[in-house]
Structure prediction request, 108 residues.
Amino acid sequence: MPQHIRSLSSPPASFEELKCAIACRQVTFPLRVENVAKRVLAKPELMAFASTTSIANDCGVSVSTVMRFVAHIGFHEIAQARAIFRNELRRRLAVLLPGPGMKNGSDG
Prediction:
């Protein structure tokens, strides 16, 4: 029985929203597109900063498969998709590196 493929009707606002949509099966992928999804969710820096060709090579797929992933999650251009991955990396960095005025766990 073939897998029922579903795309998002509108793009996710965040990396977390994308992960939730996938976990809740609001979006399902063809096998090769799923390989891209798994890889870029595990390594968001890949989608955030690598060229489309590099992403495709890393995932063992064609550039058009990477673009199908982008379309599947509701974006028209890869630059739009990159934004949520870059924002996720910024969020992770902010957690690791406290902002000005914060002293790594000390009160004074």
